[in-house]
Task: inverse folding
């Protein structure tokens, strides 16, 4: 009898296993690979930037990680399986019968429905940052449907490879839930790179294959592209037999628990931005929650996340609009900028939002320094720093960028 069985040796599953065994070494934990072949994935992703693969995927040998977990006492099962009824439920692999008080679903999913907007599965790609290894990047023209941070990172990557890229969003501008001033700067930079951004409601979108190209039609024009990427498809169970648990689909609570009290989910199963940085933090939080059994919810505002690309974009805390809703017009806005270090680069822009008592409410950073600088600002947000506490740290940022300047 295990305390926890983790299904899926992907990024989320490995992080949960590692955090859980470090928190409470006496636990009995099993990690079922469930068809994941991370070492092969890493070899094929070697040429991609961190924005598309995730920092952990790019820097750590997956086989070494599994060996480390096995050495720590975790039962690593290199097989696949499915659920069977029982009290508690049973997870049956090819050769093993695993039973636990709690199960965590990290893998075992598919993001390819049978048809989408009239296209067969073979006619489009479903964007999954953790499964790029099977993609063919030779097509010269691409249409990305849906403008989340993941698809924006992909659009940048493709444009920098000289591809023709169309990015279609149902909104009037990119990232409507994020801070609009920096989202606008990011949109301008994408357009400078050559990405064509189109605002197209899904009700006006029509797709069909015409020989070697796919016709993407809407009210204003028709695009002929070689490859279409769907963004935002929700994963579907693949061979897990969730009906044995009385579930059709793993709908989750704020604590990532499904309607079955023994089953939790994380990683790609969760709605929202599918970014490696968020997957890492969600997985660490869930592992601590399962081990320590503290009743709490994950504070997403306190999590720094974004895309690592050129330029990078990261954020933590409230947007300007959210801050005004909570605190009225008494908030303060401070901008810090620095000239670009590379030709045709975008200047680093850091936006600090402070409350009426000068407490740090949010930070939004677009540029080269965002991936490393946002961690400091996230610490300040989490600990309730004021601008006076933050200023010495901003002085260090100014030294690093040699020309970082403040403008209120």
Result:
């Amino acid at each position: 009898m295990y305390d926890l069985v983790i299904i899926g040796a992907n990024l989320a599953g490995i992080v949960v296993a590692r955090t859980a065994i470090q928190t409470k070494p006496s636990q009995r934990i099993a990690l079922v690979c469930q068809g994941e072949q991370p070492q092969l994935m890493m070899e094929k992703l070697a040429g991609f930037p961190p924005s598309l693969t995730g920092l952990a995927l790019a820097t750590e040998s997956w086989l070494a990680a599994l060996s480390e977990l096995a050495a720590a006492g975790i039962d690593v099962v290199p097989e696949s399986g499915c659920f069977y009824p029982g009290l508690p439920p049973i997870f049956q692999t090819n050769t093993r019968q695993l039973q636990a008080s709690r199960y965590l679903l990290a893998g075992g999913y598919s993001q390819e429905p049978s048809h989408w907007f009239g296209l067969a599965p073979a006619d489009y790609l479903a964007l999954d940052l953790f499964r790029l290894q099977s993609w063919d990047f030779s097509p010269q023209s691409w249409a990305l449907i849906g403008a989340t941070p993941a698809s924006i990172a992909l659009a940048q990557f493709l444009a920098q490879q000289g591809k023709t890229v169309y990015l279609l969003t149902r909104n009037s501008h990119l990232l409507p839930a994020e801070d609009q001033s920096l989202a606008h700067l990011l949109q301008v930079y994408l357009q400078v790179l050559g990405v064509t951004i189109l605002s197209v409601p899904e009700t006006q979108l029509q797709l069909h294959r015409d020989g070697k190209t796919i016709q993407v039609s809407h009210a204003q024009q028709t695009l002929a592209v070689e490859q279409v990427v769907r963004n935002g498809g929700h994963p579907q169970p693949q061979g897990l037999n969730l009906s044995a648990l009385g579930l059709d689909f793993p709908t989750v609570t704020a604590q990532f628990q499904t309607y079955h009290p023994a089953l939790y989910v994380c990683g790609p199963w969760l709605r929202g931005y599918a970014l490696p940085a968020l997957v890492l933090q969600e997985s660490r939080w869930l592992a601590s929650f399962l081990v320590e059994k503290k009743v709490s919810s994950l504070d997403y505002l306190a999590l720094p996340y974004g895309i690592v690309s050129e330029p990078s974009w990261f954020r933590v805390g409230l947007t300007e609009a959210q801050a005004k809703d909570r605190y009225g017009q008494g908030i303060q806005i401070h901008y810090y900028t620095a000239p670009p270090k590379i030709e045709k680069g975008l200047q680093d822009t850091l936006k600090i939002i402070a409350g009426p008592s000068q407490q740090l409410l949010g930070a939004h950073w677009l540029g080269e320094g965002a991936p490393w600088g946002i961690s400091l600002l996230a610490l300040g947000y989490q600990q309730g720093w004021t601008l006076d506490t933050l200023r010495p740290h901003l002085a260090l940022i100014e030294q690093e960028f040699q020309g970082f300047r403040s403008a209120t």
Q: What stands out?
A: Confidence is low (pLDDT under 50) at residues 38-60. Residues 276-292 form the longest helix (17 residues). The radius of gyration is 22 Å. The chain has three domains: 4-110+235-300, 121-230, 311-407.
